[in-house]
Amino acid sequence: MSQKVFAPWEDATEKPLIQFKGVTKKFGDFVAIDNLSLDIYQKEFFALLGPSGCGKTTMMRMLAGFEAPTHGTILLAGQDIAPVPPNKRAVNMMFQSYALFPHLSVWDNIAFGLRREGQDKDAIAARVEEMLRLTRLSKFAKRKPHQISGGQRQRVALARSLAKAPKLLLLDEPLGALDAKLRQDTQFELMDIQEKTGTTFVIVTHDQEEAMTVASRVAVMDEGRVIQVATPSVIYEAPETVYVADFIGDVNIIQGRASQDADKVRIDWAEGQPPIIGTTQKTFSPSQTCHFAIRPEKVAISTEQPEAPNVLQGRVIDIAYLGNLSTYHVELPDGTMMKAQTANTRRLSRRDITWEDNVWLSFTDTAGVLLER
Amino acid sequence: MRRLTWFNVTSLTLGFAFLYLPMVILILYSFNASKLVTVWAGFSTQWYGELLRNEEFLDAAWVTIKVAVFSSTLATVLGTMAAYVLVRAGRFSGRTLFSGMIYAPLVMPEVITGLSLLLLFIGINLDRGVFTIVLAHTTFSMCYVSVVVSSRLTSFDRSLEEAALDLGCSPFEAFRLVTLPIIAPAVISGWLLAFTLSLDDLVIASFTTGPSATTLPIKIFSAVRLGVSPEINALSTIMIAIVTVGVITASIISKRASVAQQRDEQAAARAT
């Protein structure tokens, strides 16, 4: 039995759960969202990623019903949600500040939404208990929000927003206030809960690592536009623009002039330097300006000249030691800085490259990506 | 820094003397056995007993309490509504004008407020009595309530209301179930403030009252014109006591509860 890969966005017959159709949102003269179209499918864990002020929170608030689009429509399960007020939407939100009700206990916080639906007492109690179990909070049911820890509060907020079994759960920077260690644990917990409940999650974050970890697809946003929507691995390995390549992870960008021969491209990037050879599916016109983007971990560093399609010589200026990895900052003869990263498989004392050393950088002709802009 | 220098002690004594000496004398003389106000003839509580048998004073006290309860309740409802709208409405043109207009009665001379209310009541041909005093007191105490409540609302985390809406509350339910319980201490201390203000007021009440209703301050004022009696001293002492308790309670409630609430709220918002 072959396991089916979860990729509804590649299936033309699949109907999206959420559709943004030409949505524009203006605050006065400021354009927060600029003619944006986007499809999100059922059971997806969709991440909106971008720097602060890129409009990702505005998109989320439009889905929750706290803002209305200036132009365009948002469809939820095929229905225009513009006329539906927030309290009538099958959408729940987990707030950045958690927004737990300080005067209610954990139990009452979780039961709050269920009570508004007018369910009977036993059904509410059963559902609250279920949520408490799911988020491992059963012990803290009677406590007030200020009597529990940050991680627990975060789980109460999650339980409260999941209690009504929404079609869509919005998470606004849900882990922003947690420390690094707790954040990692919680990310996996979130993924686990998302899988168990089968709810569609849309998460807003400015933390690229978080988006890469949890999401089935990531939309990289900038200034009210979606720059690229793809799976984390495609975003990382095949960014479409320099902006995306630069925003996600570390990258070396070299600008040059292209001359193409079938799928191989020669990039002349500096006087007196050997051209870089890259591979692409795109077509570049002769001597078109192009950007060659290569991740530091795909650049090998050595003290002797290696055999490779691309070999550059340089001098080590700086070494960033990260424990498991070391990043070497290498200055090429024309002054360009290039980063190369190696895994520290050997103990530090036996490292054979150090400051001011002359080294060789090498990479294959498929290691980098060629970008037009 | 905290040393009690002679300068500090002197200024403190002078300040408190100015503030409280008259009241202390009033309270002392209310326990005077002599009928003559200026002659001390030993300790006695007889004037308090006499006060309780004085029908006129008891009537006036009853009117005053009725007026204070109704006007402060009405002022709390209106003042809270006004504060809510002004804080929540965000920026719109003329906002400063609106909030300024709500707070203007704070600095308006009482004589003018009283006179204008009197003209209004005559104009619409309203019989003056308890009802008109209630209306008048509501008018001026409402802005105090709205100051107290709006200062609490500005520090209120708006996402709590959004969360309530998100979980299925109508805007009114969100106010009733989330906002009101959280700002309740401010609302209560606003009510107490309005209550004591109404208890105190002489000027506006005397403008807007009719022959059927006499409040305690009016009663005291007219009685004093015929000469100060120890009975009046006793009555005033009781009023000082009520007002003091009211004001202290209001400030304790608002301080303690709002500090605690805000601490909880911040704790709930902060993660670790």
TrEMBL record, chain A:
SUPFAM superfamilies (alphabetical): MOP-like, P-loop containing nucleoside triphosphate hydrolases
Molecular function in Gene Ontology: ABC-type polyamine transporter activity; ATP binding; ATP hydrolysis activity
InterPro entries: AAA+_ATPase (IPR003593), ABC_SmlMolc_Importer (IPR050093), ABC_transporter-like_ATP-bd (IPR003439), ABC_transporter-like_CS (IPR017871), Mo/tungstate-bd_C_term_dom (IPR008995), NA-bd_OB-fold (IPR012340), P-loop_NTPase (IPR027417), PotA-like (IPR005893)
Catalytically driven reaction(s): ATP + H2O + polyamine-[polyamine-binding protein]Side 1 = ADP + phosphate + polyamineSide 2 + [polyamine-binding protein]Side 1
Gene Ontology cellular-component terms listed: ATP-binding cassette (ABC) transporter complex
Coiled coil: none
Gene3D superfamilies documented for this protein: 2.40.50.100, Nucleic acid-binding proteins, P-loop containing nucleotide triphosphate hydrolases
Presence of keyword Zinc: no
UniProt keyword list: ATP-binding, Cell inner membrane, Cell membrane, Membrane, Nucleotide-binding, Translocase, Transport
BP GO terms, sorted: putrescine transport
ABC transporter domain mapped to chain residues: 18-248
Primary enzyme class: translocase
One Pfam family matching this protein: ABC_tran
Highest taxon above the source species: Bacteria
Annotated EC: 7.6.2.11
Family assignment from sequence similarity: Belongs to the ABC transporter superfamily. Spermidine/putrescine importer (TC 3.A.1.11.1) family.
NCBIfam families: potA (TIGR01187)
PANTHER family: PUTRESCINE TRANSPORT ATP-BINDING PROTEIN POTG, SPERMIDINE/PUTRESCINE IMPORT ATP-BINDING PROTEIN POTA
Function field: Part of the ABC transporter complex PotABCD involved in spermidine/putrescine import. Responsible for energy coupling to the transport system.
Subunit structure: The complex is composed of two ATP-binding proteins (PotA), two transmembrane proteins (PotB and PotC) and a solute-binding protein (PotD).
Name used for this protein in its record: Spermidine/putrescine import ATP-binding protein PotA
Originating species: Thalassococcus profundi
Gene: potA
Automatic annotation (TrEMBL), chain B:
A biological process from GO: transmembrane transport
PROSITE patterns xref list: ABC_TM1
Compartments it resides in: Cell membrane
InterPro entries: Bact_Polyamine_Transport, MetI-like, MetI-like_sf
Transmembrane segments: 12-31, 60-86, 98-124, 130-153, 174-194, 232-253
Keywords: Cell membrane, Membrane, Transmembrane, Transmembrane helix, Transport
Domain ABC transmembrane type-1: 61-253
Record-given protein name: ABC transporter permease subunit
